[in-house]
Amino acid sequence: MNSFSRATLRTARPIPVKPNTTQYSVVASRLRLAPHQFCRASSSSEHQRESNTGKSAIVTGSSRGIGKSIALRLATDGYDVCINDIGANAEGCMEVVEEIRAIGRKSCFAIADVSKRGEVANMIQTSVKELGPLSTMVANAGIAQVKALLDLTEQDFEHMLAVNVTGLHNCYAEAAKQMISQHDRTPDNPGKLIGAASIVAFKPFALLSHYSAKHNITVNAYAPGIVGTAMWEIIDSELAKKKGQPKGSMIKKYVHDSTALGRVSVPEDVSKLVSFLASSDSNFVTGQTQVVDGGIIYT
Ligand SMILES: NC(=O)c1ccc[n+]([C@@H]2O[C@H](COP(=O)([O-])OP(=O)(O)OC[C@H]3O[C@@H](n4cnc5c(N)ncnc54)[C@H](O)[C@@H]3O)[C@@H](O)[C@H]2O)c1
């Protein structure tokens, strides 16, 4: 039984049926609620997205592709952004940092392998030192492997789990620890944990979101469809090899056969959704996985 129903039982007495504002204030005072907690009209300021200025975000795997688009979009939305990737993509990280500074926002980069907990903790400390308290973590880094079940080696499987599962957990857990230690999260200004999902692995993290919401941290995921990034170049060429088809034909076929809106997705389709998930407009959204695929999966 939640505290609202407990309070209702304790104070259960007939309430005049006349539907006027006095009735609501009597009920509100019996429940020891301030009038605005019981019922309130919305004001025009509540229809505006709050500014993100002064907030900072980390976007993992953001030297290219969807992560880069998210980082640039959040910077345009007012965030200072920490770019992350593995060492092999350090040059791409530096380029994105420069692009963000040109927008007029602060930026830095932290090389870290998200599958290593210690490296993730260091990345967060670098970001906090350079950009201030952490508001939003976008756990975007991920890998794809194009192999039939029986061809997957033990190492393939471990690597996939390490990056796509342990990596996400490391980013969520370390970011949540940091946000809780800051004591600056409120229901009107929650921390945001946002993760990359996929239409291929469409499932919510119900227990995690429940746990985190207690600390004024929302947890949501975005599930892209077929996005024309380096990842799909690999998927396309591997599938084409297996089927004896020319390079570039598989992505076209998949989009033609399965996407209602009939085009390959671009990273900006995804970063527009993440912009919403990282903004005040989504402060009451948690535990959701939002598909953004041009009409492949229908929820
Ligand atoms: N492209 C798609 O169609 C598609 C569809 C569904 C989901 N996704 C997901 O969206 C996310 C971004 O995909 P993308 O298409 O931009 O892929 P991408 O391969 O272009 O970019 C992924 C980035 O993550 C980085 N990365 C990989 N392992 C890492 C690690 N251990 N630590 C830190 N960084 C690491 C890579 O170096 C790369 O820069 C991924 O999680 C992917 O699974 C993509």
TrEMBL record:
One Pfam entry name: adh_short
GO MF annotation list: oxidoreductase activity, acting on the CH-OH group of donors, NAD or NADP as acceptor; quinone binding
Start and end residues of each stretch annotated as Disordered: 39-60
Gene Ontology biological-process entries: fatty acid biosynthetic process
Superkingdom: Eukaryota
Family the entry assigns: Belongs to the short-chain dehydrogenases/reductases (SDR) family.
The protein, known as: Uncharacterized protein
Species name: Neoarthrinium moseri
Organism lineage: Eukaryota, Fungi, Dikarya, Ascomycota, Pezizomycotina
